[in-house]
Design goal:
Helices cover 67% and strands 5% of the residues. The chain is built from 19 helices and five strands. Helix 1 packs across helix 4 and helix 12 runs antiparallel to helix 14. The longest helix is centred in the first third of the chain and has 44 residues.
């Protein structure tokens, strides 16, 4: 079930994340040039409406269709979404996220149906006119039928958000958001749900607190600072570096393993997140666009002109509450938080569930921390390694950089290292490195690659063991 939920969330966020740059551009324009912005300019501010009502939904729809069936699916999705835009008086973010994958699916089914049935020389004619005819039908349906339905769904969601806001219940969303983040659903929540809804609020109010619900780095910062003082072993040693990467780099995935080592710390994250949201609500804080990645620098760049105090106080409150609770948990109710021990324990538990003896599990884990997902022998020469994370942009990019450096130091710079989303790992990849929580999805995405499962992105002993293994294989 967890894998299916992650996959669904990944489908949503995969439509928005590649277009985050456009959302940030739009947010900057809103922050600078609207009537309440830093540099009010009526002509420049006229960009805000068309970008949010047309450009952004079309980008989302095209990306959703493209992800399912390539460029043809993207074009069909954009055509259909244009019908939603014309048939509605609200930004069609929700409609774009529905029609993108749906149109991609229809295009994929049509292409599969006609495959091998088109006469030689008529391929271009059929390809172009098929999109034209299907697009004509769908865009007309979108204007008359689909758009009203999506508007109703949009109003229902908006009513739900307004209920939380007007009844001062928004802090309670942390009960759902923070645990879901630990299951690597952070991108799905932030970019798949909150970013589209927040963008719509910006059109109405010039800013939105929804951009801060998941992106606030305070809860994770408090937990990492507690590990710096009260942690043990390599967890304590790696925590200071994780603080910098999390708070300034915006890679929130870096602190997830620290909670997984001691699941009771999720209470710290939930209470810290709730405290931050409460403070931001009291002071009416909000951002003008999505903060991606969730770095304090990105958050400040997108903060509305009247919200800097509330945003900074919200981050500080979240960090303080999370830190205080984490210190209590680590000192009073804590346990040995050594990262290597936690990783070994996890592997032993998995081996036990498969009926293997503990000695066998230890033997297996000692062979480069490696688990073979496919039929690779584990001894062939390696030329292509992929580091995969949920979105393929944050922790995987950091992990790829660390691995490249280690390979260069070992004289193995000829090995190509690339980062990618866990749901779309290149088929050519021979070795895939990913977090153990994402292991099943990685194995499903590329069943023939050797799978290296790590517990901590920053302090993974598997990196060094992998390099030593590659030295022997690539002689």
């Amino acid at each position: 079930m967890k894998q299916n939920v992650q996959l669904f969330g990944r489908t949503l966020s995969a439509m928005v994340m590649p277009n985050i740059g456009a959302f940030i551009t739009w947010g900057f324009i809103a922050a600078l040039f609207i009537a309440t912005g830093w540099l009010p300019n009526e002509k420049f501010a006229s960009l805000v409406g068309p970008m949010s009502s047309q450009l952004l939904p079309l980008l989302i729809a095209f990306t959703g269709g493209y992800n399912v069936s390539g460029h043809r699916g993207g074009v069909l999705a954009a055509i259909t979404t244009m019908g939603l835009i014309v048939g509605s008086d609200i930004p069609m973010f929700l409609g774009a996220m529905i029609m993108g994958p749906l149109c991609g699916f229809l295009m994929k089914k049509f292409d599969s149906f006609i495959e091998g049935k088109v006469k030689a020389g008529f391929e271009m004619l059929v390809n172009n006119f098929s999109i034209g005819i299907i697009g004509l039908v769908l865009v007309l349906l979108a204007v008359q039928v689909i758009s009203p339905v999506v508007q109703v769904l949009n109003h229902v969601l908006a009513a739900g958000v307004n209920f939380f806001v007007t009844n001062h219940l928004l802090p309670f969303t942390s009960v759902l958001i923070e645990p879901a983040k630990i299951l690597f659903l952070n991108n799905a929540i932030n970019h798949g749900i909150l970013t589209p809804m927040g963008s719509q609020q910006v059109n109405e109010a010039g800013k939105s607190i929804l951009f801060l619900l998941e992106a606030n780095p305070g809860p994770g910062l408090g937990i990492l600072l507690a590990y710096c003082l009260a942690g043990k072993g390599s967890a304590k040693g790696s925590a200071p570096g994780a603080v910098i990467i999390h708070f300034f780099g915006g890679i929130h995935e870096i602190y997830f393993p620290y909670i997984l080592m001691n699941p009771l710390l999720v209470v710290s994250a939930v209470c810290g997140g709730a405290a931050g949201i409460l403070v931001e609500t009291i002071f009416g804080a909000g951002l003008t666009g999505a903060a991606a990645p969730g770095s304090i620098l990105a958050i400040l760049a997108m903060t509305a002109q009247d919200s800097y105090f509330g945003v900074l106080l919200g981050v500080a409150a979240a960090a303080a509450v999370s830190f205080a609770l984490s210190m209590v948990i680590l000192k009073v109710a804590g346990k040995e938080e050594d990262l290597e021990a936690a990783a070994a324990q996890t592997k032993a538990m998995k081996a036990s569930s498969k009926g293997l003896k503990t000695e066998d599990a230890k033997s297996t884990s000692s062979v480069s921390g490696q688990k073979t997902a496919g039929s690779k022998s584990g001894m062939e020469k390696v030329g292509f390694i992929v580091f995969a994370c949920d979105a393929g942009m944050g922790s995987s990019a950091m992990g790829a950089t660390v691995l490249k450096k280690k390979l260069k130091e070992a004289g193995l710079e000829d090995i190509k290292v690339q980062h990618a989303p866990v749901s779309s790992i290149p088929k050519e990849a021979q070795v895939v490195v990913t977090h153990e929580e994402l292991g099943p999805r990685a194995a499903s995405s590329n069943p023939t690659a050797e799978l290296i499962l790590i517990h901590n992105f920053l302090a993974a002993p598997e990196y060094d063991v992998l390099v030593e293994n590659l030295k022997k294989r690539n002689r």
